[in-house]
Structure formats: structure tokens, C-alpha cells
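Morning. Coffee machine broken again, so started the prediction first thing and wrote up yesterday's gels while waiting. Chain of 253 residues, entered below exactly as on the submission form.
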Amino acid sequence: MTGNAQQTKGTIDSEEVARFSAMAEEWWDPTGSFKPLHKFNPVRLSYIKQEVCRQFGRDLNAADAFKGLRFLDIGCGGGLLSEPMARLGAEVVGADPSETNIQIAKLHMKSSGLEIDYRAETAESLAAAEETFDVVLNMEVVEHVADVPLFLEATSSMVKPGGLMFVATINRTLKAYALAIVGAEYVLRWLPKGTHSYEKLVKPSEIELPLQTSGLKIIDRSGVSYNPITDTWGPSRDMDVNYMLLAERAKED
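Came back before lunch.
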């Protein structure tokens, strides 16, 4: 990415940053505004652990399965993913454009007895500093940025050879509009109204092309569905609403 591109374009949507900053104190409240993320966390944590252990030949049952691996949790919010990664032994950089979110994450980190490198930074600034990571977690972020291709270009550039990028978001379909916006925000009130905008939802193809252009290969696709009977989320073949993509950068010869 060139310096000129960074000066003239950006991925930060200031309205989205302000919205999440206003709710920052609720990040670690499992009954608050981020309740859906707390419910969603087990399925994405399981997926991340499974795929990282497979990619790097780690013991899935080891308490320090991620020891020696460097992770980037981009758009980390209050640290709901950063902390579990650190507990598994990873060296974690948690980055978010909201200084308020970062302060909340740092406070919770101290109470948890963990060491995480939290930074109020953008993907572009990290990429410009030539930061590199074994794993980039790009989870529930792309639907909130101003320029999706630029954001994916910046985050892809930081994946080391042999490394992985996880992307999780909501598909732009009528089914997703009905369930993730109307249902979740207006009927069930799981999320504050206006959390998601239909126009900013992202189709898998709109993620896959920028990743492939940046030299990554898509190696897995998974839907994520809600079970109202068990009140849990789980993997699914249905990618019409929530979905996760996994990409890798080829190892160097």
C-alpha cells in the first residue's frame, strides 16, 4: 500500500467508531449491548482454535496451544477475542480506532492478569509500520468500515507466509436483513437499533476477491446459525446470514 493511498483514503467510519465508543462500558457485560457477541464467542473461539492448531501443528488440548504465535485482533473492541487468545499463549496485538474501547480493554486485561498489546490504531497505520502476524482475526469488523477493499488489503498485507486470516461478518441478503437487522435489533432487541446497516453488509465474494488479490487463498467457508431451542450458535452450511471465511498465505519456498 502506498503512502499516498493512506493519505487520501481511509477505512475508518467515524459514525461507527462513535457508536461503539458510546457503548464501550458494556463490552464485558454478558447481559448488555454486546450480549450477542458473548453468545457468539464460543463458536468462533472453537473455530479459531481448531484451524490454528491444524495450520501450525499444535495440540488442540494444550493449555498453551498458541505459544510462540503472534496474533492481531483488528477492531478488538473491549478484548472479547484478544483475552482468550492470550490465555492460550499467543502474543496478541489488539487494535481499535476507538481510544475509549482500548481503555476499557486495558482495564479488563489488568483485572484478568494478562499481557496484551492494546493500541488505538487503524489497520492502515499497522500495515504502514510493516507489522506482521501469524494470525489476523478480522471478526465482525468489515461491516463497520468505510472502505472494505482497502481494509482487507491492509490487513492481508500483515499475514506472514504460512499464516492465516479469519474473517467473520454478516451476508448482504434479504434473509440477513430479516434476521440480523429486523429480528435482532427491532423485534428481539438483542442489539441497539442501528447497529448494522443493510447497505454495509458484505457478501462473501466481496471479501474473497480482495483477499485473493492480496495473495491469500481461501481455504475454508462456514456459516454460523442460531439455535433458539438451545440458545446457542453453531457451525452451519448456511452462509446466508452469519458466516466465517478462512484464508492463508502460502509458505515461502
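The first strand starts at residue 70 and ends at 74. Going to sketch it on the whiteboard this afternoon.
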